[in-house]
Amino acid sequence: MRVLFVASECVPVAKTGGLADVVGALPKALRAMGVDARVLMPGYPGVMARAGTAEEVWRSGDLFSRRGVLRRADVAGLDLLALDCPEFFDREGLYVTEAGEDWPDNPFRFAALSRAAAEIARDGLADGWRPDIVHAHDWQTGLVALYLDAWGVDGVATLLTIHNISYQGVFEAGLRRDLGMPESGFTAEGYEFYGRVNFLKAGLVHSDLVTTVSPTYARELESPEFGWGLEGVLAARPERAIGILNGIDTAAWDPANDPAVPTFTSRTMSGRNSARADLLRRFSIDAGRPGPLFGVVSRLTDQKGLDLLLGVLPDMLRAGGSLVVLGSGDRRLEQAFRTAGSDHAGSVGVRIGYDEDLAHLIYAGSDAIMVPSRFEPCGLTQMYAMRYGALPVVARTGGLADTVIDANAAALSAGVATGFQFEPGSREALSNAIAKVFAVYSERGLWRKMQRNAMKHPVGWEGPAERYVDLYARLMAAETGKRGFSGTR
Ligand code: ADP
Ligand code: GLC
């Protein structure tokens, strides 16, 4: 089974969010199962630093008046193919300028990535390697399946995973000719979207199978509230989006073996106490505060619902709680959190920015991690939190609903609760959930029990990777069927 992953980010070389964690971990899990999985991604500076001198395995045709070469390198257990095309990718911001504006040539940059993937799927690499399946991720790779269809390539199947349908890659209609998108597809059934072109829609229309990152989000996507205008497109497909829950990389995120934190296990938690003390020091929080320490590690966007948290903050602090926040994004939210930090110095600590090691320390040292998202396709932070014994407080939506066992009466009496859930978008519901966190926190035995449950909850990639392998097998069988059983390629 040869699978070409195509994505715009990948841990450990380029990350803005959970997409990178998934693309850095799932192919590794697949390789351990014998799948020949390779990852094609843009040659950003961080990627070229690792792959810049690696073997050249392919040269592109015309990539929108640019040329690219692929360099193949073994990076952190991944078989990485870096698209070396400095005019498009030699920039620090993956998607945006330093001022936070989208790069104006984003449609070309990601069409180039998609086009390179489609050419490889058609012609193979220099050594003859050609994928059976192209597994694309999010809007940046939506055009792969469109190009393959437009060029009439067969012998390769396409799978698109939606990580977040609210980002679609919508651009002005006139670009379709420059991007080599067939005119016949500029219709409501094709890639046209309210008079513009939509990369994700192209992917949904042309891919053989579509998956998304949790079962609950797969159903939510079909409603106007969560479908962001594409719910009808999903409904028109022969098969609905299949929900497969993400896992996390349990080797990179292991409290018993993590260079960024004092280590601990569910039996010996003293390292966790050191991590908490460390965290309080780093954020100048008064160690005498009696209540739980809440943590946030998040992109600061509307999606994440953190404005609700600001709304309940005074109550949380009055009750003796404290809060540490690490995040960046929306300038307004950044400012609001900075202000909260200075208004409540000693009980609220805020770092605006991106810091991988500090993120690990927050999961390891906080008592609870807040994820009050309005929608959340899967969410990884609640899983990192559980693995590190920080109880997640999550909105009951998408993957948050599928990964956290709420401390309701039934779960508590069965002894299986791993966190706290509340109705999304409601400040009152969040406030009630926080009150419950305080109540459980004051019963040390119960809190410890929930921590142990959370730390033992299965969050690895083994199960999900098997489900992807089943889908790949199904796609390959269908592709063989199309070609008849003599099936030469
Ligand atoms: P999303 O992909 O929507 O941002 P996820 O929960 O799937 O949400 O993944 C977020 C990932 O990004 C996690 O690995 C989280 O630890 C990380 N992350 C988010 N913000 C920061 C930050 N400011 N610094 C370090 N890591 C961050
Ligand atoms: C997206 C989603 C997040 C998900 C991640 C990885 O960024 O917002 O919920 O966990 O992709 O699939």
End-to-end gap: 14 Å
pLDDT under 50 segments (min length 5)?
A: none
* Bound molecule kinds, no repeats: adenosine-5'-diphosphate, alpha-D-glucopyranose
CATH architecture of the largest domain: 3-Layer(aba) Sandwich
Strand content: 15-25%
Discrete helix count: 20
**Coarse structural class:** alpha/beta
What is the gyration radius calculated from CA atoms?
23 Å
Question: How many strands in all?
Answer: 18
Q: Under the CATH scheme, which class of the largest domain?
A: Alpha Beta
- Report the principal-axis shape: globular
Order of strands, main sheet, comes to 3-4-5-2-1-6-7-11-12
> Remind me, CATH topology of the largest domain?
Rossmann fold
Helix content: 40-55%
Q: Describe the largest sheet.
A: 9 strands, mixed
Kindly state the mean pLDDT as a whole number? 97
Count of distinct structural domains: 2
- The CATH H-level superfamily of the largest domain is Glycogen Phosphorylase B
Report on the structure:
The chain is of the alpha/beta class. It folds into 2 domains: 2-247 and 462-479, Glycogen Phosphorylase B (Rossmann fold), CATH 3.40.50.2000; 270-456, Rossmann fold (3-Layer(aba) Sandwich). The protein is 40% helix and 18% strand. It has 20 helices and 18 strands. The protein has helices spanning 18-32, 45-51, 86-89, 106-123, 143-150, 175-178, 199-206, 215-220, 224-227, 231-236, 270-282, 306-318, 331-343, 356-365, 381-387, 398-403, 409-414, 427-441, 444-456, 462-483; strands at 2-6, 36-42, 55-59, 69-75, 78-84, 133-137, 157-162, 170-171, 192-193, 196-198, 209-212, 242-243, 293-300, 322-329, 348-352, 368-371, 391-395, 420-422. Helix 12 (306-318) crosses helix 18. The model has no long low-confidence stretch (mean pLDDT 97). Bound molecules: adenosine-5'-diphosphate and alpha-D-glucopyranose (GLC). Residues 17-19, 21, 297-299, 326-328, 354-356, 359, 378-381, 384 line the site of adenosine-5'-diphosphate (ADP).
